[in-house]
Amino acid sequence: MSNFGQADRHSTDRNGDVGRVKVETGSTSLTLGRSFRAYKEFSLAAGAVETIQVVSPINFRLSDVILTVDSGEIRYESIGGATETSAFTPLPTIFNKNTRDDMIAPYTGVITAGTGGTFTGGAVLDVARLKTGTNSQRVSIVEQAQGVREVGPGTYYVTLTNSSGSSTATGIFYSHWEEWP
Known about the structure:
Number of strands: 14
Order of helices and strands: HEEEEEEEEEEEEEE
Shape: globular
Radius of gyration: 21 Å
Helix content: under 10%
Number of helices: 1
Structural class: mainly beta
């Protein structure tokens, strides 16, 4: 490091002659208040379907989609390019992941989600199935480590279908994303 001056300020105890600079990995979205989370608890009778509509006017990064099933069988699908056929009620469980009072740049999210409506058509983008025995089961459809998705503006639908023949399916759907207008 002699060509770059002394390394004292950025050195480690292992070797004071070798300069090191700490680098943070990951996105700055959490610090900037652009990282969000949502969840939806469900209890579905045999054959019943829960539909979640997601509307985004901007590009966003989908970092996690997690489905936890306590009992029963669930088929998960995400669908794009469909048409809404009845209105959705806003999902009240969308939260900014940064709730600090000293947030650097307060930001109001623009992605919305709703439940209770219906749609027709579209193309299936993802599918997963989860069946419980005696223990709860969890599946990550999109994981931050390897499955981050860059998603364009649009309207998307998530369906959770109880695919068991006779029992009620219960669980929680989670999602995390970053907004980058």
